Structures are given as structure tokens and as C-alpha cells.
Amino acid sequence: MQNIESCITANDGMAGKQSVIFSKPVYLTGYVSIVGQKEGQGPLGKWFDEIIEDPMVGRDTWEEAESELQARTVSRLLEKSQYKKEDIRYIFAGDLLGQLIATSFGLEKYDIPVFGLYGACSTMAEAMSLASVCVSSGYADNVIALASSHFASAEKQFRYPLEYGNQRALASTWTVTGCGAVILSSRCNNAQNGRAIRITAMTTGKIVDYGVKDSMNMGACMAPAAADLIASNFTDLNVTPDFYDLIVTGDLGSVGKQIVLQLLKEKGYDISNNYMDCGIEIFDSAKQDTKAGGSGCGCSAVTLCSYLLGQMYAGHYQRILFVPTGALLSTVSYNEGKSVPGIAHGVVLECVNPAGKEAM
Amino acid sequence: MDEEKQQDNLDIVWNKDTMQKEKEQRFREHIRDKEQERNEQYNKYVNEVTPKPDSVGDCIKAFITGGCICVYGQVLMELLKKFNVAEKNIPLWTTILLILTSVLLTGLNIYPRITTWGGAGSLVPITGFANSVAAPAIEYKKEGQVFGVGAKIFTIAGPVILYGILCSWICGLIYWVLHTFGLIQI
Amino acid sequence: MVFIRAFLVGGIICLLTQILMDKTKLMPGRIMVLLVCTGVVLGALGIYGPFVKFAQAGATVPLLGFGNLLWKGVYEAVLENGFIGLFQGGFKASAVGISAALIFGYIASLIFEPKMKKK
């Protein structure tokens, strides 16, 4: 297996045009996922930390419900990983709502400095990238990266009131109700079975616009961005697809999956053997009628913070490239006839033994 | 003499500048064309791989759903006749009852399920219109009486009312002109 | 029998709209606008009237019928009041439908709470 440190080309840590290899280690020291009922009934149900049956999460509005999801996730994260909130230096967080209100009202009570991020559905990787930079550069010891989405608040903002009847297109996706969060730290204190997880590299995505205007086909809007990012990651780190045990996109769905595999094939990479999409895994599309799959910031966040990290700790995956994708549209840009550009951010997660060397 | 030389130099620089600019311009145009071509090809490809709806099945469902709602309207009309409601008021009562039914089903979250199955079948009848009024009213009540319910109640139905009124006004105007100048008799 | 005629005509109107939706991917809001305007024009051309006689509810219940009603309102008001009727007839004819939807919709907002979709 290639060693990631050998990929550092010039300047400490900068790799290629858009990637960074973290010279000082960044450890993942805690993770939690909380989801709604439908996600809990899906194939990944048993992996989540908590399934909340009440879609309002005990609050009065959908927006408050999403805030509550975030608040509960942070509480549970601190509890599970045995940190006090004073130990956390920053939170990097985001959601899909206008002006990030779910984050604002969800995290206000924690009294922790916050960076609010918007990367559409790619927010989880954006948060993890920036948090890793922060930790690796020595400006923070423990940082939370978090992303959430809620089916009802998203539907209300981007589409129709929930009581309004309409038929969903076959290529459309179902916004995941859920919140996932991780703690990234400069020191490792949570090795499981002699394994710890490190964030070893990141690749930051460009805004990629192939002129698709169909907002009911987000997979097609975002697939070019995902393909661009994955290819850039390969060239920047000078690796081949089999460098990773798994390459995971966020919410391309069944249509986007097909396209991204094809686009990468055209670029000369075949990732069909080690590729997975969170949106496809989180729901049983046939049984749960979710059409092309799940979507939203929460989709990739909760899949990472449940199944994926669980599998890494269990030793099934050694190295993962985590690539959530976002569709950069608003109701205004859509009504004004703009196309839907996509963005993707990549984070490399690696299993190491707690001493810091790669686990075998 | 010196001045002339300087002028020449300036000309050359200027020429070079414009040539450079033209070149850049051409290059940009070239890139733009390439991008456009790529986007067109991509959209064509996306169209190919995107699953198409099962049109036949959808149409049968729409036919059945729409037919049933219309029959329900007809049943209401016949019942109203039996209750000796004045002939000219029967359509109005039918409309009111259809809308009431639809609003109730919307509140109970049943109407959206009918549309998920029946598609256009429950969108096209007046009940679909009522659904589009009641749904935002319920959804946006949390945003207040005036800017929530009051303003958002028209988000979907507003355009229907606007363009219905506008369109009938235009048709009416044409009719009025033709009628006034004696071009039609009716 | 009038029920069968209502079923067939209403069903066919919905079926044609479904084809339009599947082919053009038009959003429901646009479809509704399109239907009402088409109804107005069909009414003005005198095509929709016979339909209503033939199918009754099958032709009045779809939004095409609502458009036809708007036209009838404007037409009658113009006959009665001349030019000013252009500004009268539309709302007069559609008053019951729009008022009922608004009033019942408002009452519903008092009674019902927003609910999560399952499918």
C-alpha cells in the first residue's frame, strides 16, 4: 500500500493544486449520529446512536426541530466521548436552511465559538476540512464538526408545504432527517481494538457547473463536481483508486452514481469496485419509496458517523475517501432560470494504531 | 526624430497589446464554446440515464383518480337536486362541498397521499386547487397570522387566480371590441 | 348515464394533463395556471359550453371548468354593463370557489397542525 506521507510534494502539507496532507496528526476522537424515524427504519438503522420517533423532536416548528436535533447531537457527543464543553475550542457547523437558522438556534446554548458554514449537502466535509486545518495548525485542540438536515424544514423551504400533494420525480431524492457530528483532536484518547482514526488529507472542491437545470435531478447536477474532486484527489496525492478501501460520495443517489462512475471512467479511473454512495445506502428505495435515494447535509453526516466509522473501527476499512456533494441552488436562483452548480469536498480518513503509525 | 521613434514604439506596444487582447478574447470565446458544447453533451447524456416515469401506469392512475373525483361531484349534484336546492345554486353548492372535502382531507394529511398515487388526477380538479390553498395555510401558521397564513396562503393558488382573471379580462376585452364594432352578434 | 359520462370526461382531462406533466416536467403550479387559462380560452371560443352540457361534473370539476366559469362571468357582465363588466365578471363568477377555499383553508389552519410526510 502507498504511504500517504510520501505524497507530500512541496511545501509542508500542500499537495497538488487543491489538497492538503496534514503534517501534524488530526485524530477523530468522538462521533454521534441522531436520525428520524424513517432513517431509523432504513438498512443502516442499527448503526445510529439515537432514533427520534417524533418528527418535531418535541418542539413546535420544523426549524426548531432541526435545531433540537443539533443540540441533542452535541450533548450526546460530549457525553459519549467524555469531553466537557469547555474542552471544545470551536464548532464548525452548518445546515440547509436560509441564514443557517438551525445551527444558530441549535448551538447557541453551548457557549462555544462557532463557524457557521454553508456547503449545501457537502457541509460535513467542509466542516471536517476546516476543523482539521484548525487542529493540525495547532490553533485548537478539540473541534466539533457537525451538519444537519430535516426533511420537513428542507421541503418547506425548497419545495412545497408538506400537506400539498405532488408527485416526486424518479430521479428526486428524500432529504434525510438527522444530524451527525465528530470531534477532531490533536491527541488521541479513544483507541478501539487498538485502532484510532486519523484525518490524513483533504481535497477542497471547486464549483462545477455543467448547465443542468433540473432541480429534481440533483444527482446529475452534483456528479460532475464529485468526479472532478475525486480525480483531483488522485492527481494531487499521486495515487490510484485502489489506494482507498472505499470512496464514499454523499447523496448522488442512483442516477448520480451511474454518472459519476461514467465521468471518472472517461478521466481514466475505474472506482466501481470500491465505491459507495450514502444516499443509496441509507434508505431501502424500493420499500421506503425514496426514489433515487437520500440527500441533505444529514445524509452523509449520519452515514459517516454511524456505519462508516463503525466499519473502520471494526477493521473492515483501512482508508476511506469521504466526498459529500452539494447542489448550490436556492429558490431564487431556480426561479431566475439559473443552472444548478455542484460542489464536493473530500476528506481522507485512515485507521492508525494509537502510537500514530499506520495500522496493519 | 526622437519623438517619432517614441511614437513608433508606442504603436508597436499598442499593437501588441491589442493583439494580445484579441488573442485572449478569442481564447475566452473558444473556452466558452467548448464549455457550452460540453454542457449540451452532458445534458443529453443525463437525459438518457435519468429514469423515465411509467407513463402508461401514471396515466391510468390519473384517469381513475380524476374520474372518481368528478363522479363524486356528480353525486353531490344529484343529491342537491333531491334536496330541492334551486337549480342555479346547485353548481355553487357542489363547488363548496368539493372544496370542503378537499380541505378536510388536506388537514388529515390524506389528500397529498391521493396525489402521490393519482398525480394529475387529483391536481386538475377544483379539489387540487383547494389543496393548494389549505396546505400553505396549515404549514405557515407558525410564521404568524398576517405574514404566515395571510401571505403564504396564495403562494400556489395566487398565480391561478391572477392569470385566470387576467386571461378572462383579455378575452372579454377582445369580445367587447368585436361586439362594440358590430363584428359579432352574440 | 351521466355518471359514466362524468367519469370518462373528467378522467380523460386528467389523463391528458398527466401526459403533459410527464413529457414536460412542468411544476404543478404552472399546470394549474395553464389549465385555467386554457379553460378561459375554450370557453370564449364556445367550445367548452357543449362539453359541460354533455358531461356535467366531468367538465365543471376540473380546473378547465373554473376557467370556463371565469369566462362566463366576464361575458355576462359585459353584456349587462358594457366595458365596466370586464372588471366585474371574473371575480363575481369565481367568488364562491375562491371564498370557500380561502375560508375553509383558514379554518383548517386553526384546527390542523403541520404533519410529517411518510412517503
Shape category of chain B: elongated
Helix and strand run of chain C:
HHHHHH
Q: What fraction of residues of chain B sit in β-strands?
A: under 5%
Order of helices and strands of chain B: HHHHHHHH
> If you average the pLDDT of chain C, what whole number results?
95
Structural class of chain C: mainly alpha
Q: Please give the most extensive interface between any two protein chains, plus how many residues each contributes.
A: B-C, 79 and 78 residues
How many strands of chain B?
0
Q: Write down how many β-strands of chain C occur, each being a DSSP E stretch of 2 or more residues.
A: 0
Distance between the termini of chain B: 91 Å
Low-confidence stretches of chain C: none
Radius of gyration of chain B: 31 Å
SSE order and pairing:
The complex is a heterotrimer of chains A (360), B (186) and C (119).
Chain A: E1 14-15, E2 19-36, H1 37-41, E3 50-52, H2 62-81, E4 90-94, H3 101-107, E5 114-116, H4 123-136, E6 142-149, H5 151-158, E7 174-175, E8 178-185, E9 196-203, H6 218-237, E10 246-249, H7 253-266, E11 275-277, H8 278-282, H9 285-288, E12 294-295, H10 297-313, E13 319-323, E14 325-327, H11 331-335, E15 342-344, E16 346-352
Parallel strand pairs in A: 2-3, 4-5, 4-6, 7-12, 10-11, 10-13
Antiparallel strand pairs in A: 1-2, 2-8, 2-9, 6-8, 9-16, 13-16, 14-15
Chain B: H1 2-49, H2 55-82, H3 90-107, H4 111-118, H5 120-123, H6 126-139, H7 145-152, H8 157-180
Chain C: H1 2-24, H2 28-44, H3 48-55, H4 57-60, H5 63-81, H6 89-111
Helix pairs in contact in C: 2-5, 5-6
Explain what this protein looks like in three dimensions.
Chain A has 360 residues and is of the alpha/beta class. Chain A has 11 helices and 16 strands. In chain A, the strands form 3 sheets. In chain A, strands 1, 2, 3, 4, 5, 6, 8, 9, 10, 11, 13 and 16 form a 12-stranded mixed sheet that branches. A two-stranded parallel sheet of chain A has the order 7-12. In chain A, α1 links the parallel β2 and β3. Chain C is mostly helical and 119 residues long. Chain C has 6 helices and no strands. The chains are: A alpha/beta (360), B mainly alpha (186), C mainly alpha (119). Chains A and B meet through α7 of A and α1, α4 and α6 of B.
